[in-house]
Amino acid sequence: MRTLTAAWDAVRGQLARAGVPDPERETPLLLAAALGLPKEVLYRDRPAVDDAAWTRLEAWTARRARREPMAYVLGHQEFFGLDLVVTPRVLVPRPATETLVATALAEIPPRAGRVVDVGVGSGAVALALARHGFAAWRVEGVDSDLQALTLAKTNRERVGVRARFYPSDLLAQVEGGLLAVVANLPYVGQGDAVDPEVHFEPPRAVFGGARGPELILRLVGQLMGKLAPDGHALLEVGAGQAAEVAQALAEAGLTVAPPVADADGIARVVWGRR
To answer: How confident is residue 250, by pLDDT bands cut at 50, 70 and 90?
Structure first.
């Protein structure tokens, strides 16, 4: 049995020595999960850490100290108010992608139609749109990875919303007449520097080509054949990629709006309308 203070100091110190960016924020997350308690209970009741909880905490802290993403260590991640199961098969949902969801909710017309999330991964974007979007939207999600689709379906049941998930190579297997296409596709270049955590994520979900936006540009080439008149396309992009992707949308025949910045001021969402 250990006191909460002793366990807290041990975890925080190990994370700090490993270079984890924010050990003060992550320490209570690990402690609460190991104890099976809400985080606020730690501060209120200061519970002791029994041997079983300490064993879990040691193992999880060691994994996080190796810079494995917290979402993989704990097995879930919060995204746009949804608690999602996350495994190393899919990209960890990131706060920047909440900008994509917020822009989609603001800009996709509130009328009946199909909204397709391309590269669904854990299902984060599609499920957030299904939970918070217009009731008449028919949300779909596609991915070329069957295991990712299985996880998205698990999260669909966990969240309790309606969405259809099925395999497709980008939009190749998707029927046309779409109200909107939303996509957070890989956009990191093969030679780009990445955080240590990224090395634990599936390369197919991280790297979009030699330069980065190649997969996004391939999707842009499919849009006019799939969007309905007045259909919208909303694409998450990497830092410095907005102008190139916006130009590609314009050359494809879409009317392009100014890009939307994320919380860090990076032009993160490029969108246009047919």
So the answer is: very high
Kindly report, residue by residue over 33-60, the tens digit of the pLDDT.
Answer: 999 999 899 889 999 999 999 999 999 9
User: In this predicted model, what pLDDT tens digit does every residue of 210-228 receive, in sequence order?
Assistant: 999 999 999 999 999 999 9
**3-state class of 5 per DSSP?**
helix
Q: Do both 56 and 117 map to the same domain? A: no
Contact 180, 234 (CB under 8 A): yes
Q: How many whole angstroms separate alpha carbon 27 and alpha carbon 61?
A: 9
- CA distances to 87, 134, 210 from 201, in Å: 9, 32, 18
Q: Which residues constitute the domain of residue 261?
A: 88-273
Residue 72 lies inside a defined structural domain of this protein: no
The answer to whether residue 79 sits within a structural domain is no
Residue 88: name the closest of 148, 142, 143 by CA: 148
**Within 10 A of 79 (CB to CB), how many other CB atoms are there?**
24
Strands 178-183 and 227-236, bridge-based pairing: parallel
Exposure of 201 in the CB half-sphere (CA atoms within 13 A): 22
Residue 83 in any domain: the answer is: no
Looking at beta carbons, which pairs linking 8-15 to residues 24 or more positions away fall under 8 Å? 10/61, 11/57, 11/61, 14/61, 14/62, 14/65, 15/61, 15/64, 15/65
How far apart are alpha carbons 52 and 50 in whole angstroms? 6
Would you say 121 and 156 are in contact if contact means Cβ atoms under 8 Å apart?
no
